[in-house]
């Protein structure tokens, strides 16, 4: 079902720039118009400047004018399921079409699990919270 998205994440993983951790990650996002954007993790000698694969994929989509994610796939360790880190979960929710979008966590083309956004970041803080506050203040 998610064949193309999974293949895009696996292919992006091959481009991971990981001279420090050696831990390759690839990700791909399916957008509202069915376009797919991918990305890999990109490390830096100043470790904190590292960008995770999920955020690279999402920033790639946003840079091409797409803001609504219908599904996201991620592959890190191919022997274990690698879930998105906390920062990436927050960035995914910013652009997720709904709380129910599938988060496809891949080991290989054949082996993957599917979670939802709500599963991995329950009670997420989003722009809705900011809008509610504005309403109360009437601004
Ligand atoms: N990494 C990701 O790309 N995505 C995640 O969700 C978890 C961590 C990367 C960052 C770093 O390059 C390497 O994995 C080890 O932390």
TrEMBL record:
This is Cytidine deaminase. It comes from Proteiniclasticum ruminis. Keywords: Hydrolase, Metal-binding, Zinc. This enzyme scavenges exogenous and endogenous cytidine and 2'-deoxycytidine for UMP synthesis. One of its GO terms (cellular component) is cytosol. It catalyses: cytidine + H2O + H(+) = uridine + NH4(+); 2'-deoxycytidine + H2O + H(+) = 2'-deoxyuridine + NH4(+). It is an enzyme of class 3 (hydrolase). Substrate binds at residues 41-47. GO terms for biological process: nucleobase-containing small molecule metabolic process; pyrimidine-containing compound metabolic process. Zn(2+) binds at residues 52, 85, 88. The lineage of its organism: Bacteria, Bacillati, Bacillota, Clostridia, Eubacteriales. GO terms for molecular function: cytidine deaminase activity; identical protein binding; zinc ion binding. Belongs to the cytidine and deoxycytidylate deaminase family. Pfam families: dCMP_cyt_deam_1. Its EC number is 3.5.4.5. The keyword Ion transport does not apply. Its cofactor is Zn(2+). Residues 1-128 form the CMP/dCMP-type deaminase domain. NCBIfam families: cyt_deam_tetra (TIGR01354), PRK05578.1 (NF004064). The active site is at residue 54. It comes from the Bacteria.
């Amino acid at each position: 079902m998610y064949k193309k998205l999974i293949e895009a994440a696996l292919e992006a993983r091959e481009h991971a720039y990981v001279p420090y951790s050696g831990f390759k990650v690839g990700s791909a996002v399916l957008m509202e118009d069915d376009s797919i954007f991918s990305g890999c993790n990109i490390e830096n000698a100043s470790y904190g400047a590292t960008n995770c694969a999920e955020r690279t994929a999402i920033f790639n989509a946003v840079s091409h004018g797409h803001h609504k994610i219908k599904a996201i796939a991620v592959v890190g360790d191919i022997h274990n399921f690698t879930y998105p880190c906390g920062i990436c979960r927050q960035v995914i929710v910013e652009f997720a079409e709904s709380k129910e979008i599938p988060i496809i966590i891949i080991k290989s083309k054949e082996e993957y699990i599917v979670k939802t956004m709500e599963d991995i970041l329950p009670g997420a803080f989003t722009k809705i919270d900011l809008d509610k506050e504005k309403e109360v203040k009437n601004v």
